[in-house]
Amino acid sequence: MQNSRDRILAAVAANKPDLLPLPEIPVFSPETEDASFILQKFHATATTIGSKIFMVKDFEEIKAMVSEQFREGRIVTTIPELADIAETDLKTIPDPHTLENIELLIMRALFGVAENSAVWVTEDLMQQRAAPFICQHLAVVLNAADIVPTMHEAYERIGSADYGFATFIAGPSKTADIEQSLVLGAHGPRSMTLFVLE
């Protein structure tokens, strides 16, 4: 004798619609896809949502800026080129709770999106899923050539690759539901810095 759950599931299974191919979604490109225009849009959007953005030539310039801005506190990076100014290899940390005192995390992004200044980061770049959300300040390094105009291009670039875990991150955390005023760093990193390698 079937219980009500089994009857419901059987009815759903018996009434499944035919599988259809996914629709073709056009890419809505901006009027211009000039690299300098895309970079300017990314810069303007990032600034508007509370991020700090710096154009840098190399990792030495990043090191100098980090050393100047963060003289105290725990600095962690997942980028081998920055190993001499920060702790590395989060993969060896078994308990993510030990990351709670990170002052600054510096990691790479695969690419950025100009229309909302989001960056796409995968688990292998984070090394620990909690890391970019538990730190006090987050810094992300990406190449200027890896900035796409819109989310349409971003999803095309992601494609059907199997990342396990990945996410878009845009700006510091924020909320505007308290007395109708914007509060940055409400439930995650208090600041987000973008280092764009020219």
UniProtKB/TrEMBL annotation:
Membrane-spanning intervals of the chain: none
Pfam family, one: LUD_dom
LUD domain mapped to chain residues: 98-195
Organism of derivation: Mucilaginibacter arboris
InterPro entries the UniProt entry points to: FTHF_cligase-like_sf (IPR024185), LUD_dom (IPR003741), NagB/RpiA_transferase-like (IPR037171)
Protein name (Swiss-Prot/TrEMBL): Lactate utilization protein B/C
